Amino acid sequence: MNIFSSNCKRRLSEDNIFRVYHRNDPVPMVPTWPFIHVPDGGKGDLQLLSPSSLNPINHHSSDTYRKTVSQDRKGTTSLDWDILRKRRPQGNLEQSIEAWLKSDSILSLSLNTAWLAGEALLWVLKKIGQLAGIALVISGSTAFTLLDRLAIFMHKAYQISKDISFWVLRLIKRLAQLIGIKVAKDVNITVAFIRMIFLRIHRAVSDLVMRAGRMLH
To answer: What percent of the chain has pLDDT over 90?
Structure first.
């Protein structure tokens, strides 16, 4: 997850890693939530502004990529790396994630909301690390899966302070909304409950990406 991404960037050097993709392209979403690609952010992570399309697989076509990086309408001249970096979508992602977590708006699972859910998870994990000074341990025994460890980590963080528990609870509620589960105000946030939400949304996102991928054939 984020630990592997950070180690990979450190060992290979960010100057040697480039990733160019449309955010709404389902193929770069594999492996799916809660895993991330390398690099995830930084100067080598060149996320292209996806054109409007009702069919997500259109964002995977070579023609769409070619048009996106073309300097003119005829597509005869390709953009260089510096220009591509400047064309990345702008905006304050952290503010957007915080607003998304605080919102009670109706959600439906799509490639876009699945991506946002993954970003929100990483945002909360980083916030927990900053506020609580605890770390997510993924090495050692293989008795627990990554999702198991995430659930245990989240539950531990939930019990530490009011500030942290607020963000953990908001994340769990928003993830539950994506899979059609309404979390009651008096719900008991246990490791088993968090794990259930993580497992069900992981399966739902995986299925979503697989269905989008079948459209390639």
So the answer is: 21
